[in-house]
Amino acid sequence: MSLVARQHRAPPPAPSAAAAALPLRKLAFPALGTHCAVQYAAPGGDDQAVTFERVAVAWVAAFEAKYSRFRPDSLISRINAAAGREWVAVDAEMEGLLKLCDTLHFMTQGVLDPTTLPLLRLWNYQAESPRIPSATELAAARALVGWKKVQHAPGKVFLPVAGMALDFGGFGKEYAVDLVAQLALDHGITSALVDFGHDLRALGAPPGRPAWHIGLEDPRKPGVADGSIGVTGKGVASSGDYLRSFTIAGKRYGHIIDPRTGWPVANGCTQATVIAGSCLQAGVLSTTAFVLGVPPGIAFIQACPGAEGLVLTATTRAQTRGFFHYVASP
């Protein structure tokens, strides 16, 4: 991901003295394979802050324990282990996520497919010696991929072919960001920036400021911001493969796989950033736009009401009509 959250430095409007004087607190903890942080103002003071932080951290820990494919005892791991053998009982929360998968797969025309894990394992950029899979290996992995193959009914789910596997990595972190933002609202906190591995959800604005200031990383210079945006009440996510990849014979292979082809995306895109009503929506749109490339990716973002985006290649910068409204002054 390629976003850096900071406070907006533009001249503030005239908030109430009490609101402007609230301290900006920060909760930070490791989870979901990344660094999680929440900047927020607690009008109710220390008691409100302590309660919110305890609930937020506990919810994220429970979510990770249940849905992480890296936890052998998680629900996802149990479903994957039972592939080709038996149905697995699921609760109402999991049923809701499976229905969400239905929606996301349909909305993205198959670009977001929660069964892509066999291909991700095959194109392992973290391997000691990454390699290009053979045609036979690719065909075998692709035969295990396809969300429409998954069978789910009230209270249960079944992966019908041994070797099939679910992975919510394509939207799970963004979903968690939105849930923690909702927890903040539930606890009376209306000024917060939830940042899980640079997938973001902004509530209100920092005390005394007009917006949250989000730096956009330059894919040509990782770690260096190249412009920024100011947001309130929005989710922001960015997709890119310039940090996670491997190179063989002079050709780079990124970590974002197109499940429709079985190959890493190679359309020239370096980064896609989306501002939308939720972090989940922004993340799904940014990943899909990255896979579709320019110009289809921009058209896809524009088709979603209220969403704006920017897609970069090595030589072009394409953006939706309203994206410039969020660009912050230096």
> Quick check: average pLDDT?
92
Q: Tell me the overall shape.
A: globular
Order of helices and strands: EHEEHHEHHHEEHEEEEEEEEEEHHEE
Biggest sheet descriptor: 8 strands, antiparallel
Q: Strands of the biggest beta sheet: in what spatial order?
A: 2-3-7-8-11-16-17-18
Indicate the proportion of strand residues: 25-35%
By CATH, the architecture of the largest domain is named Roll
N- to C-terminal distance: 22 Å
* Fraction in helix: 25-40%
CATH class identity of the largest domain:
Alpha Beta
- Count of distinct strands: 18
CATH homologous superfamily name of the largest domain? Answer: ApbE-like domains
Give the helix tally: 9
Radius of gyration: 20 Å
Number of domain modules:
2
Q: Per CATH, what is the topology of the largest domain?
A: T-fold
Structural class: alpha+beta
Low-confidence stretches are 4-15
